[in-house]
Amino acid sequence: MQVYVGDDAPGAVVDFTVTQGDSQALLSWKAPEVGKYGGTFDPASITGYVITRSDGTTSETIAQPASATTYADTPGFGTYTYSIYAENNVGKGTEVSADPIIVKPADWILMVTDEVVIESGKTYKFYDVSGPDAYYPNSRNDTLTIRPENPDGLVHVAFKSFETDTWGDYLYIFNGASVESPAIGQYTSSSLPSELESIESTSDDGALTFVFVSDIMSRYEGWEADVTVTDKKQNDLVGGSLEGDLYPAAQSEASYTFQVMNKGINAVAAADYAVKLFDGAGNLLGEKPGVDIESMQSVEFTLTFTPTEAGDYQIYAEVEYAADNDADNNRSATLSISVLAEGSQFVSVGDHSESVLVTPVSFMSGESLSETIYFKDEIGIPGGQLKSLTYPLVSVGTAYANVPVQIWVTETELENLEETSIPASEMTLVYDGTTSIATDDSEWVFPLSTPYNYKGGNLVVLVYKRSAGSTSYDVNFRGTYGATTDPKRSRYTSTFDDSEVLDPEAVPLGYSAGTLWPDVKLLFTDVTSGMTQVVRPAAVRAYPNPVSGILHIDGDGLSQIELYNCAGQRVYVSGPVTSIDMTACPAGIYYLKMVTDEGVSEVKKIVKN
What we know:
Layout (H helix, E strand, L loop, with lengths): L13 E7 L4 E6 L17 E7 L4 E7 L4 E4 L4 E10 L8 E2 L3 E3 L4 E3 L3 E5 L5 E4 L13 E8 L4 E11 L6 E5 L8 E5 L11 E2 L7 E6 L8 E10 L5 E8 L9 E9 L10 E7 L4 E6 L8 E8 L5 E11 L13 E5 L5 E5 L4 E3 L10 E8 L1 H4 L4 E13 L3 E13 L15 E10 L5 E12 L3 E9 L8 E6 L9 E6 L21 E2 L1 E6 L14 E4 L6 E6 L2 E8 L4 E5 L4 E3 L6 E9 L4 E8 L1
Parallel strand pairs: 9-11, 10-12
Antiparallel strand pairs: 1-2, 2-5, 3-4, 3-6, 6-7, 6-8, 11-18, 12-17, 13-16, 13-18, 14-15, 14-17, 19-20, 20-23, 21-22, 21-24, 24-25, 26-37, 27-34, 28-33, 28-35, 29-32, 29-34, 29-37, 30-31, 30-33, 34-36, 38-39, 39-42, 40-41, 40-43, 43-44
Protein name: Fibronectin type-III domain-containing protein
Keywords: Disulfide bond
Pfam families: CUB (PF00431), Por_Secre_tail (PF18962)
């Protein structure tokens, strides 16, 4: 047993707290009430206090008088740990510490696990955890919710800069007060994605939730954003996105969807508003009456019109609502469309939600080559002039300008590329130039400088990209990795050394074939011109023409008969026959393809009454 007799040093201070002020750490405490070792202690004996501030690397002590019970420290932006002890003539008292605290301006919001409530009428700065002038740290996994103080407010965030490691660091954003709320998106980029320039909550609680995850690899500067509260108006219908057919055919109905959201406090009755579709000159193309819409509810309208002539046009949709307190947000963004001439057709091969990084090109490397077979059954038309190739995108985090690209195409009887590939010299060069890709692009479009005369076979596409320094992991194309049982229809290779040059003549291309391939959209004009036509008067006849019932076919040496509608869809196929019953076929234009024993095709235009 130890017994202490006489005066004692101070014990621990009471109720030591450190809270966040405006660029300050606010410390408070009460004087010790007992001695350090259980001996005689009189609080009046305290001669002063010693505060220690540590940033994890260096420490500094701050002396305070015996009468002090608070202290406001202004060490500059950073994370600090504070400790304190009292002392008297006997000696140093017991030291106690508080949890680490971030010292920052009051209008800063940092990406840490927290919930922040913000006021209307103020602008806050939102940074990664390291603030504006340092790289964010590795191995972070933080969740931050930002709420409006006003229950009728909506959090609005406008990013000004954004840079993360595109290999493994992501910012996730959710529309509401938790990660269970609907996801707005996930972002990783070496430049500011256009989608982050303006994000506003549409949740009933008006909140946004952010999750930032960084791996153990590279670190970057992070981001800076302005955060404000948008106070709801009494009446406010907002026009959102306008989406639909970018390449409608002339004389055919085109359909577009228009999102309308009620961001006002009041519900809006169907009779009080309408939605309309206009061309760039303000001419009305179509309209729909409104529907009842509650506060913070979204409604999707389908608007249609029939373009009359081929050409490039701009269209937009708008809400007409007389009681709207903010008519400036009633219109959609302008949508550019290209109306195709009659007889043109877009063919989409693949409709996948997967992301592929290395094909049709790789932006992870300076140069890349890929070759893919698109099967004739997937294309589904007898032939035509191939005018453009379009690759759908999942996301673009980093924009690139003036990217040199060459594209070759041909047709093949190959069903896979396991044993070989087709060199560029045996294909048709259809595109040779530079192109750009932007963060708000949803498609990568290549208008072909040399149209290709497609004849209805398996289409092979070889894409060669040359762009030193394009080494980001955030350009994602739509496609599929396929299944192990799928044909190995593609090959690809790439370089990570800017001095290395790839060879589009290499056979076989890359190390091996695979089931990975990108989705593609193919624009064909004159969907029958791709078929080889041999004129042999009186050798083959199809009559009567026009026809309303039985179409008779006369000809020697025929091996196959095919009938296509005006959209290029095959509606009939058979071996050699002498007639086709077209009674049930809808009226219109048809194309009769007759193949001889020698493989020669003849095509006749048939009119069905």
